[in-house]
Every structure is written in structure tokens, then in C-alpha cells.
């Protein structure tokens, strides 16, 4: 059930089904909230078991990567592109722990370096990141505009055929640009 206007119809994707659709600005806000939750988990005096502390932070870190990918993506990227970029970033950061250079190791020993890069390579971390990325992909869906061209204030779609999903979700009124900022 659709609760409001769809930002734009997407090719074959019913934005009103499943997870909520988020704009880049909303994805950036979600990123900030996830970072705050991660800092609270890692820096707070919670006396949690080490596995909860460690892997909970990894899950939140993966969620942050997906939200960042959704916030800073090109307009035509969808969920799968954000999943791919977030997953690749997680693998690169985890593999970077196998690289040891004096400056990089010195950075890793700072609080910021520990939070961003970590110190010890573990394939289990990749599973925690994947869980966080997958959870965020299920929770939010970026607004996608594949094939849409903005000509002044009128959006024209390269795929303008009506879709079954359009009947249940109101479209953007004609003459508006969709308004994602």
C-alpha cells in the first residue's frame, strides 16, 4: 500500500512495495544515525559480551557502508549497485588490514583508525559486514531514476509504458520534477 507520492516511477520496480524509498538526503541522515549507534555501542560503558560488542559494531559498520553508498550514489543506481559498492568497500577495508606500513599502522592505533579500519584481519568480520549491508538493503531502498531525463520542469521517461504497479501508487503530478535534493 502506498502512503504518498512516488518520487518517480522506476523501470519495473514498484517503489511502494517492500522497504521504504529514501532520497539521498534521507540516506545521509540514516548514515549519521547508524554512526551514532555504532559510537554508542563501541564507546559506551555497556559491559556487553565481546562478541556482541565486536560483531554488533561490524553489523552497524556494514549498515553505514550501504547507507553511504545510497547517499552518494549516482541518480540511476539502485539497490543492487549500492549492495555491490558497499560490499566491495567492506572487502577492501578488511583486506587493507593485511597491509602493514608504518604510517598506516600508526593511524590504526588511533581511536579514529580503530573505528574506521580496525587492526586485525578476520573473515568473520566480512560476515558481520555482509549482515549489516543486507539488513540495510532490506530496510531502505534508494530512489532510482533510470532512463529519466530532466528537461526543464518536465520528466520524460525512456520507458513510458504504464506498469501494473502504477495503478496502486499515485504518480508524480505532471509538470513537476520529482524534487529529490
Topology:
Elements: E1 21-22, H1 24-43, H2 50-71, H3 79-96, H4 102-108, H5 111-116, H6 123-139, E2 141-142, E3 148-151, E4 154-157, H7 164-168
Parallel strand pairs: 1-2
Antiparallel strand pairs: 3-4
Listing every helix as H and every strand as E from the N terminus to the C terminus, the arrangement reads EHHHHHHEEEH
End-to-end C-alpha gap: 25 Å
Query: The biggest beta sheet, please?
Result: 2 strands, parallel
Structural class: mainly alpha
What is the alpha-carbon Rg in Å? 19 Å
DSSP helix count?
7
Note the beta-strand portion.
5-15%
- The overall average pLDDT, rounded, is 79
Low-confidence stretches: 1-16, 148-181
Q: Which word captures the global form?
A: globular
Helix content: 40-55%
Q: For the largest sheet, list the strands in their spatial order.
A: 1-2
Regarding quaternary structure, what we see is single chain
Number of strands: 4
Can you tell me about this structure?
- By secondary structure, the protein is mainly alpha-helical.
- It contains seven helices and four strands.
- It has helices spanning 24-43, 50-71, 79-96, 102-108, 111-116, 123-139, 164-168; strands at residues 21-22, 141-142, 148-151, 154-157.
- Helix 1 packs antiparallel against helix 2, helix 2 (50-71) packs across helix 6 (123-139) and helix 3 (79-96) packs antiparallel against helix 6 (123-139).
